[in-house]
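I hope you will forgive my troubling you with a question about protein structure. The matter concerns a single protein, recorded as an amino acid sequence and a row of backbone structure tokens. Please examine both parts with care and let me know of anything in them that strikes you as inconsistent. Here, with my thanks, is the record as I have it:
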Amino acid sequence: MKRRYLITALVSVATLASIEAVSEYSINFDTFKDYNKARDYLNDLPDILKENAELIREEDGSYSVKFHYLKEHKAVVPIGIQLASAQVGGQVFKAKDEYLYSLQLASFRRKENAERFLKDLPTEIRENSFVYKTNSGYYTVRYGLFDNYKLVKQVQKTFPYESVLVKSLISKVAGSLEVKDKKTTAKKEAKPEERKEKREEKKVSVPVPPVTAPPSVPPTPPAVTTPTTPSVAVTPPSAEGKQPEQKPEELTDEQLEQQVAEELGIKETQEPQVIPATESELEETPSLDIAEFEEEEELQLFEEEKIEIPLYKKILGGLLFLPAYMWTHKQRGFWGKVEFTYKKEGYDDQYRKTTRSSFKQYYELNYEGYVYSPRLATYKLGVSYTREDSDINNDSVKGDTTSKLWGYDIEIHLLKSSRFPVNLFAKRTQSPLWYTYYDKTSYIERKSDSYGIFGSFNFTENRFNYGYKNTKSDSVGLDFEEYRRTKEFLVSYGRSDYDKSVTFTYQKNIDDYTQKYLTINSFREVNQDIDSLKFDYNWRPSKTSNLRAFARYYSNTYTDLKDYTGNVSFNWNPSEKMYSTVSLNLSKNESSFSDITYLTFTENITYTINQNWNLNQNLLLFASRGSDADVDLANTGVNLNYNKQLTETLSIFSGFGVSGQIESNRINRYGGTLSLSGGISKKFSFLDSLLYISGSGSKYKSSKDDQSDTYSLSERWTSNISKSMKFEHYTTYYYQDSKYYVDKNKFSETSYENIETSNSIRYYTRLGWKGTFNAGLGFKYYKGKKRKERFYPFGNLNLNYKFTRRLLYKLSAEIYRDTYYDKNYAIGKTGIDYRIRSLYFNWDLQYYYEDSDYYGKRKNYVTYIRVYRPF
């Protein structure tokens, strides 16, 4: 058991427990699994502790050395004093220059006065009190030895005497006890005749306890005979002597032994009776200086007991405090990452060749801890360092570059589990970015510094959020530079109830940046303020309905744009068969080029007639005004759909719709559309196949002789050749022929007709429980009216195999030809992922090949090896 915890436990029991009321109390010194070690530990204890200690076998088979305290109602030597006495022999505590806390009751210039005051204290207090000599020569009466500041403060609050909290040196307490033990032993060894002679020679005098200020008076204050003359407490004959006017009393040997036992505190003594002293008794009393008992002097004595710490220790302690505090108050502790990456890439075409190789080192160290408690404050401190050495080689430029970039990440979270969390952050990120092409290599070094604060005030129904972020970002490259400064502000308020909620959000961004394109000598400077205000309201008046209202304001000073948007929607679901929604949207857009206002109303109802039939009705009203864009539009329609499962393998569906439209803008017209659709789905047991055929057609006519005919037809066939192989085929045909009135009997005509088909075989299988493999092979064909024919064969594969739990191999490839662009294309990727405990290894290779009429033959490859270890 640690020394300071042992002292705290023993002194706490001796201080707070009543000695007369407790029958037995035991304290566990230590526990051992081996009997011999426990016995040796017991034998090494000092004799003063060994008398009440014993070895006990526990239920789990271990052996405990326990100290029995206050056994059989017998008052023992105070526990705190026992520990100090044991220190004299150096058997338990080896450190002698150690300060502990005590309660100072009084201070004297003469030692006999201090001892007399100690003797007159009540038994419960005297047993844990002692006389202590200060560095300035004063003799003080102190109570207890505590190593816990909180504990001694708690005892001081309930202590019957007023006291001053001081520090006591254990070596001094142990020395005074050693002298006291020698005197007590000498008294016991004295012969009865010598004791009798000394007793006859001894003159009985009035014991005068010190006259102290209020902090040092006993529980029963002495009586005062006159306002100017303080009363002196005089003990009865049973204490040390009698009144001066009484004749000395002869004491027998038994009475003398009883008196010695009372002085040692072995037997309970009667609390002395306080008798007021007369003026004559006061004159015969040895002179005492009243200033000795004033509280101001006691405070001064306390200041004299402060330890003088050398300057070098203060400096060393200050340097070691922060890491020591962080280590003892860690949450996640230290963690980070070390990473090394080697990368090489090459680009080659018929005109030039470019290669680049780089070696990148990345170091990251973070620490997460808390202050006092994780609920009060948690923090994260992070730092990173990146170094990249690159070699560049192309037909025109050869050279090398070195980038050294630092970054940091600081996060502080205050009261995160409370209703008022506050979050502070500061971060710097730096990264090198390379863009390698066939004709050139571009490099940009980006550095971004940001800091800010965000938090919230959370109440039962209300919530207030706030945030601020300041960002400074610089990007400097070989042919491009950008310098950006951004400030972001956020304020929001939300209130939620059982069936409704409302939110207000305001955001403001101040974004100023400058861009320079060095190769074309171009310069651009932008200063813009972006403001956004949002309002969102939700209300659920019943289980079958919901109302939502939304509004937003947006403005941008650079584009001179202002946008106002508002929307109200209502959903109603009165039964399982019916669902309806209604919405109204208003939008106004203002800029230096236009000023337009839009109003849109939509309504939709879906009704399920039965299991096979359902009906859908919709309505659209639209209007716009401003900037030569005045338009009024109304459209409504009804659709009837049918779906029937004829057998387990056959189902059909169809639909019929009619709609009408009225339009008013530069050209006023009205018209209508008829539409028809249908299809069939059939499953076949042959190769577990599925056939799906569908078609649709629509016809539109208007008052201006506008017309549009649209037809489409599609079919799809899928078959499972085996458990791992599947065949897929589809064909789509689309036709459209339309003309629209423009002006003065002029029409714009459009005509489309094309067909598309695709056929493919796909294979998938598992390679045991360690890997997977899938591949595909097929072609696509396009042909259309006024469109060039296109043939597109393709093939691909993908393999993942885990040789061991830590070794994974990856492979993928893709190849195709496109006759429309006369292009052949192929790409392949492979890689290995491996892990040795916490060390990770990655290798990746990507190869690309292209052959086309426009670019000719060109190829490139990118490979890298990365080794990293998180901790």
